[in-house]
Specification:
The chain has 208 residues and is of the alpha/beta class. Helices cover 45% and strands 14% of the residues. Helix 10 (171-180) links the parallel strand 6 and strand 7 (183-186). It is globular, with a radius of gyration of 18 Å.
């Protein structure tokens, strides 16, 4: 039985509330049109291109050529990106602070995030300073669930996957981490995460 000595957090959806709907609910009068736009035009697959290192304006221009009727709304994805941030997920950041206080575990982050937009929030949240290192997909030109992206973190910080716990809200990313050898928690909400951390003896006693 391997002992956990390192905890690796995803950021968006786990510690930071990132959701394009925070912006686009102000842009579209019709919620159905907004959902169609975010699931068929500015969808996750398109956004992943910027997470993987494509320049934001290049992605916007290419998509605008394909959907000229939505050119204005697509441009807002870059121009008002910061309005997609709903703030920190306080329950999770509280757990992170509890772990950091114990000083028993190394703390790292592995995030699918554009190299252009991550700096816009990097200094807004004090909990970022708790991480020994943050590996950003847009800087590495690789994204989860590509195993090579996880390997960058393992190699750079001399981490053994079997001694690390990986926390992410995306099931595909969790499954990829498992195949590499990480222990994993599929994040759904801070309350469940807290209980699972207690079960793994990362935290002790109640998390409330």
């Amino acid at each position: 039985m391997h002992t956990i000595d390192t905890i690796v957090f995803d950021l968006g959806g786990v510690l930071i509330d990132w959701n394009p709907r925070h912006l686009y609910k102000e842009v579209f009068d019709d919620p159905n049109e907004m959902e169609k736009f975010l699931t068929e035009i500015c969808d996750g697959q398109w956004n992943a291109q910027m997470d993987a290192g494509k320049p934001f304006q290049t992605g916007v221009d290419e998509l605008s050529e394909k959907y000229p009727q939505y050119r204005k709304q697509i441009q807002l994805y870059a121009d008002r990106w910061i309005d997609m941030i709903g703030g920190e997920i306080v329950g999770t950041s509280d757990l992170l602070n509890q772990i950091a206080k114990d000083r028993q575990f190394r703390l790292l982050a592995l995030t699918n995030w554009s190299a252009e937009t991550f700096p816009l929030v990097r200094h807004d949240y004090s909990f970022f300073e708790l991480f020994e290192g943050i590996v950003v997909s847009g800087e590495e030109k690789l994204i989860k669930p590509d195993p090579a992206f996880y390997q960058i973190l393992l190699d750079r910080y001399d981490v053994k996957a079997e001694n690390a716990l990986f926390i992410d809200d995306n099931r595909d990313n969790i499954e990829a981490a498992k195949r590499i050898g990480f222990k994993t928690i599929h994040f759904t909400n801070p309350e469940s995460l807290g209980q699972e951390l207690v079960n793994l003896k990362v935290l002790h006693g109640t998390t409330s």
